[in-house]
Amino acid sequence: MPPELYLPKALSLHTLCRQALGRENPRQKKENFITYLGANLTQKFWIGLRLALNTAQNSWNDGSPVTYTNFNPLLQGRFKRFDFDPYDKEKNQQCVFFLNDPKSSFVGTWDFTACSDSQYLTLCQKTRDKNGDTVPTVVPEDVTYKWKTYKILQKDMTWYKALEECRSKNMELVSITDQYQLSFLIVTVKQAGRPFWIGLSSRDDGIHYRWQDGSTVTLNRWAEDEQEDEDCVYIDIDGTWKTKSCDAELPGVICHEVANVTEKKPEENTVHCPHKVQDVVWIPHRNNCYAFLLNHKRWPSDEHRYICHSLHPDAYALSIRDEEENQFIYKQLKPYMDLAKWVWLGMRYDGYEKYFHWHDETIVKYSNWRSGRPNVTSDSFYAGIKHDGFWDIFHNPRDFELMFYQQHSIVACKIEMGSREEFIKPLPAAIPYSNSSYYVLKKKLTWFEAVKECRQSDGNLASVHNNNQQLFLEHIVRQDGFPLWIGLWNNDGTISGTEWSDGTSVNYAFVNLDTQLTRGNCMYFDTKGKWLSQRCTEPLDGALCYKPLAAKPKSTASDPLCPKTDGSVHWVRQKDFCYAFDVKMYNYSLYTSEQASKVCQTLDSSAKLLTINDDEENEFVSKYLTADAFITRRIWLGIDSNSADQKSWLDGSPIKYNNWSGSQTSNISSCAILFPETGTWNRMPCTFGMGRTVCKSPLKSTGVGVAVGFAIFIILALIIGLVIYLYKRRHPLFFSSIRYRRAEDQMESMIDYS
């Protein structure tokens, strides 16, 4: 890959222009003539100037010296990088081209690129034959340019007389609204060799200037040394605008034809923007005025956030309120996309309040960040809107990085004439509605993470059930300025699999769904409040939660005969069993059937997936889960899917009770679920979707029975011992220790030997 070179020894193009190309020629005669000719040419075309970066002198291709340059102001003070190829001499040389984009306010300025580029049409010139006689140019009275008719009147008259003269011919004093028209009129004035009145005037003693026919002031050609603040304006022989008393006489006036049907101005552009002598051009849009600063002085060495105040006391660095304004701004940037990458966004971050401010101290409520909600912790960042309309943010830029961003950015100043009241206060931390309080999780997270965070605060993801609630939630989303998760999702791709995470009815939701939600997709509000969906496992810029204004009663402590917990969760005892309903025990998660059976073992060795043995237990479990809905209505039942006809539980015990809904056919790949709102059981594929887990454990032994048994044994042993003792006392002979034996002679005498 070829190396990249910068202009040598930090030599900026601004310095290069002053040092090597000479000072600017104020007449710009040929420049305006080329612009006038370029009205129907391509947006870029070559001119005959080649830059020799290794020399101190440049010349035009015809050998004439360079006495005038007009490089685009965005190039001034900037390093420009280009590729270097030691085997391609033409590619290494830089040639100049003419910028001819009609949407740009800098038509006629120059840029440069490698001479080997060939995408531009060129404009050629031929030296006039000096042997021939020079014929003076005659300016006709009627001239047509770009399908518009002009009348060039060359006689002495005041501005007021000129106005009457034009109107007597069903015309108006000329308004100059684009660069090509300006160049055409400058060429015409030069040819006539006299100044001409134009239709620019002031009605407030030179404070602001307006075109007579109401056209927007979008160009600025004031003479650099113009100081007279008179009310009427003329175009001088050098092509610049100057003021003069309206009662003074000038030797010419330019009229132009006005359309027969007056075009109705767009309502948003009726605002009058300031326009003073030597002032920047303020562009109206809706109730705002914008000035786009391109010269190298747009970044003062001191606090640049106040640069706009120096132009107008009510001006601030750019703020953007909505999508339409965002589109307007990036359309203004597009003509400069080869020279500038961003328009600077005048914002800062409040680390204490945790939100963005514009420089006018209003709150940033609309945004279009390229990478979603920024993770900002300090005020050290640079932000800008790029020519594709997305916003970029660069955290903690180093000095040379900041210089790069600034050199490639336009500074836009804005005068906001409408009310800013709705942007003064930030979105409250909690917004009451009906019997609930709503709040926004302002960070990137998946849908399941959002469900968890809402639940950890004793809340739920928001659900929507009528138009009024929809409008209320739309307002919150617009105030936050980011897309937000809501609680609707689909578990298995079926219609019945579409659920609100808080367990409420989905009837209203189907009105807002353009298409059926697919499996594993979740709903969110975009910044306009429209319902959209994406994968539940993909992160979004925030979530919309709510919780009841009336706090739920705190649960009592766990029963001592139930499995032990850490104290923040508990088992619920019902007769001879304990139930783990609390979703915190399961890390606020759903599981497949296979995962669910294993989860119970992690809670307690005696715990098994939910079994139900009678109608009373079925009703108890259903009521509890209905009152404490979480993500899905589907509750796994601990039926052994591999048992014969699925007639036994996972612990091997037979199923003596069931509450199947309708005709439920068992097969080896199906698992059982409970629907709490009806109490019915259903079968579904074991690998199809996820469900909520409830674990069940038998009561623990307290140890009291063993102790009582042992005590009874001791007592019985003592009683038996006592009875034996008393019996011995009453029958001493029987229990005597003396023993008798016959004498040997007696024994022998008893033997019969006969």
Major pleated sheet: 7 strands, mixed
Distance between the termini: 139 Å
Mean pLDDT: 82
Number of domains: 6
| Amount of beta strand | 15-25%
SS class: alpha+beta
Low-confidence stretches: 1-27, 261-268, 738-754
How many β strands by DSSP? 38
CATH superfamily of the largest domain: Mannose-Binding Protein A, subunit A
The percentage helix is 10-25%
- From the 3D structure, determine the CATH topology of the largest domain: Mannose-Binding Protein A, Chain A
CATH architecture of the largest domain: Roll
Please characterize this protein's 3D structure.
The chain is an alpha+beta fold and 754 residues long. Helices cover 20% and strands 22% of the residues. The strands form ten sheets. Strands 15, 16, 17, 18, 21, 22 and 23 form a seven-stranded mixed β-sheet that branches. Helix 2 (29-37) crosses helix 5. The termini are far apart.
